[in-house]
Amino acid sequence: MSEARLLTNTNSLRRNVAVGALVREREHTDTLAHKLEAKNFNFYYGTFQALSDISMVMREHSITAIIGPSGCGKSTLLRAINRMHDQTPGARGNGQLMLDGQNIYGPETDAVLLRRRIGMVFQRPNVFAKSIFDNIAYGLRIAGWHDRKQLAARVEQCLRQAALWDEVKDRLHSSALGLSGGQQQRLCIARAIAPRPEVLLMDEPCSALDPIATLKVEELMLELRREYTIVIVTHNMQQAARASDETAFMLMDPATRSGQLIEFGPTNRIFTNPQDKRTEDYVTGQFG
Amino acid sequence: MAQAERLSTWQTFQQRTKHGDVIFWLLTLFFALMVVALVAAVGYVAWVGSSEARGRFGLSFLFKTGWDPNAQNFGALPAIYGTLVSSGIALLIAGPLGILIGVFLSELCPQRFKSPLSFMVELLAAIPSVIYGMWGVFVFVPFFRSWVAAPIAKSVGKSFPLLAGPVAAGRGLMVAGIILAIMILPTIAAITRDVLAVVPNHQREAMLAVGATRWEMIRKAVLPYARAGIIGGLMLGLGRALGETMAALMVIGSVKDKISTSLFGGGITAASLVASELPNANDSMHESTLILIALVLFGITLCVNAFARLLVWQAARGPVGSARS
């Protein structure tokens, strides 16, 4: 594999996008505090081990991308962070997965309180069949916001932050289902950030969106990075390259079929100077 | 040449499919129209059969009490009242319980108890109504009379005529309503379970992800999403209660000529009135009156169904001013 090819590859990735400049300002992330930290973390569905021995960190106020082919366990890892798997019978995690030093799978951790600190945006925009306003207010009311004025102010604030306010301010009380896919996904982001979480998990948030809506969401992520720690799972390597600070590359172990972390590091390095041959093959498109 | 042949074969195939479509369309149309024809036929028979009674009593039949075949003095009000009240009680009891059972089965029940419990609920629906009636007569009526009706009538009933005595016989509207509730409970529970099962998981996850507890998730995401289906289930249960004949007849007390002010008093439902008297109706006036009662019941169920449609339509319409309305 030639150095030249790697460079052309990443350069073309970067040229694509204006927002690339924003993220590139931050080449050094290693001084930022560890918000989330996995140490030898394993995850099981019943007897099947879906993740084995994951160790990585997700830094405060930075965007960590998890990439890898289908079935490599990247979504499992993301959903393990806010214990979305609690609903699935037989799913359990062991090893350490820490949020600010507290083990997410520890007995003292309450999943409901945990999820108030860790918001999530899903693959498909899953708005409620309610008004635009209520979609955001639901989460706020659950978190104990009841004052009408404060509620309305927070809803507006979130919609502005999600760059949706100007498009919906005249129809806050009409159904969220009347919005386009891209608008619905931004509404989901607004809903996720409304209760002021500390971490925002995004599970392939752009896979159902067109390129323009995708760019809007990416710009939004870079904007939100100031306040939140963002972890994003993506199939789209260009997205990881242009909108993340650090990247984790995962693969399924062909023998055990469980997901493992191959390489983790600053996005720039993963895409220009990967240490592992398998990472190099994947980011240059030679895989599968 | 070969190409032309192939083309013509392809064309024949296309034509054949077109014929098939037409035949299939006609076939389904025929059976769909059959439903309309059946409803019309039933309505027509009831209308014609009741002409004598209608001519004699007119609309006031609906608001009149009294039941004396010898004097040919008939009124439908006790039957209408009994039907609506017993079914209303049944819905009030079975509605919330059935929905809770459905929620448990679909959302909270551990996987390994799911099938056995679901099976039991369906079994409850399969028990013939006469068996419910029998159980009501031998077990429930005596229990209810001495442990529930009598104490209530003696205390609350003194100042509240709806719950007043006497409760001597034990049979009455309340007991009938409770027996009907048990009968329609599995219908409501099973339908609730089924409509909750098709609520997409992403709706639950969306709610959990904003920090909802399980209860909040069910109340604010799952139940609202399934609202239209649950209302449909309630109405199906109510329909069953309105039309139930045997079990109601066995426990309701068969008081046909007047309305009891107390729910512990006897009454009659339209369906059980027709079923119990039609075999012994020996003059045409009596028979015609019973057919008229059947026609009234037909009207009541039509109204209930229309009302249910309205509710479901409103529930499915979404929030006020929604884009889909």
What does this entry look like structurally?
- The complex is a heterodimer of chains A (288) and B (325).
- Chain A has 288 residues and is α/β, with parallel strands linked by helices.
- Helix content of chain A is 38%, strand content 24%.
- In chain A, strand 4 and strand 5 form a beta hairpin.
- In chain A, 47% of the residues are buried.
- Chain B is built from twelve helices and two strands, in the order H-H-E-E-H-H-H-H-H-H-H-H-H-H.
- Chain B is flat.
- Chain B is an all-alpha fold and 325 residues long.
- In chain B, 37% of the residues are buried.
- At the A-B interface, helix 4, helix 5 and helix 8 of A face helix 7 and helix 8 of B.
Task: Draw up the topology in text.
The complex is a heterodimer of chains A (288) and B (325).
Chain A: H1 3-15, H2 20-24, E1 34-45, E2 48-59, E3 63-67, H3 74-81, E4 91-99, E5 102-103, H4 111-117, E6 118-121, H5 132-142, H6 148-161, H7 165-168, H8 181-193, E7 199-203, H9 211-224, E8 229-233, H10 237-243, E9 246-252, E10 259-266, H11 267-272, H12 277-283
Parallel strand pairs in A: 3-8, 3-9, 6-7, 7-8
Antiparallel strand pairs in A: 1-2, 1-4, 4-5, 9-10
Helix pairs in contact in A: 5-6, 5-8, 6-8
Chain B: H1 2-49, H2 51-57, E1 67-68, E2 73-74, H3 77-108, H4 111-126, H5 129-154, H6 173-197, H7 201-209, H8 214-225, H9 227-243, H10 246-251, H11 270-277, H12 284-316
Antiparallel strand pairs in B: 1-2
Helix pairs in contact in B: 1-12, 2-12, 3-6, 3-9, 4-6, 6-9, 7-8, 9-12, 11-12
